[in-house]
Amino acid sequence: MRSGKAAPKSPLQGYRGKKVLVTGGLGFLGSNLAHRLAALGADVRLLDCLLPLHGGNRHNLEGIEKRVEWIQADIRDRAVVEAAVKDRDILFNIAAQTSHTDSMRNPRLDADINIHGQLNLLEAARLRRPDLRLVYCSTRAVYGSPGRGKVLESGPTQPLDVYSADKLAGENYHRIYSSVFDLNATILRVANGYGPRAQMRQPSFGILNWFIRLAIDNAPIKIFGDGRQVRDYLYVDDIVDAFLMAGLRSDLRGETYNVASGKGVPLIEIVRKILRIAGKGTILHVPWPETNKRIDAGDFVADNRKIRRDAGWRATTALEDGLKSTIDFYEKNRRHYWG
Ligand SMILES: NC(=O)c1ccc[n+]([C@@H]2O[C@H](COP(=O)([O-])OP(=O)(O)OC[C@H]3O[C@@H](n4cnc5c(N)ncnc54)[C@H](O)[C@@H]3O)[C@@H](O)[C@H]2O)c1
After folding, report:
1. Is the CB of 94 under 6 A from ligand 1?
2. In the chain, what are the domains?
3. What angle do CA 219, 100, 185 make, to 5 degrees?
């Protein structure tokens, strides 16, 4: 029998009817966020140009195609960006060139998207929608190679490659526009994400997802060196929760947060877990290639106490469960992601 008590109201119900723009909305993080926003009843607009080789994938919208609007356009197009921003309440600013290695081969493209594209969005907000709430998707890579111990938001930033340097510039622009022009932006530095709806065609982005593909294909997984390097892995639903919580919190203006599990796991251990859950695949240890060695950040674990304290966010997905649902998803959907 039902008790008659109403279920407690979730703060995320504040998204009902909210006009939201997600840049990079057909990619890994953006599309997972779009699904949650659509389920919460938000008015969702996505801006994504399907940048070649990146994670943008039409299939990522399966099930919400009729509930979201997709503008197929580039954040470098000023006029489109202004039109897309001007009637919105919240902008989740996620689109980016995301490959560390490609940013070293083609630094101008990275700067074009990750610097000029960001300025377009901020200028559009300043000129056309100054009361827009902005959440900028940054990365743990801005810390560079922080060494031992959990990394605090107040720690030094020392990017090791063009991608990370340009993402840091994007952060600084958001901070400057918040303090000088009174925009309301929050910066989220995301750790190593994994989960459904990611790019699985090549290894330049999101190494864990790539390893999952190799295991599913029963192919050897190449590990550089001994694989003892420690990383902080986070399941995509937990990352999306952080974005959703931040989006409704205007009082987090100008702040920067680590979005991370706070737990370090050696790469080799996670790969062994993937092989066990997938029930196939093998490990092959190879020497570090020179370019990868030069831009590798070494061990990384973030301190997540600030976002826990200020936004009440928690990572709730155990690594084992996250890997299992990721592997299940790609086993079922491989035709949309392999290629
Ligand atoms: N995936 C991770 O583990 C991770 C970790 C830290 C930070 N990030 C950040 O998260 C964001 C999204 O990464 P992702 O893993 O979802 O990548 P993704 O490649 O899956 O998604 C990026 C999306 O942005 C779109 N895009 C790129 N350039 C664009 C442009 N100029 N105009 C319009 N759309 C454009 C792409 O088409 C793609 O759909 C990036 O800002 C990245 O820096 C990701």
Report:
1. yes
2. 14-196+233-262+302-316 (3.40.50.720)
3. 125
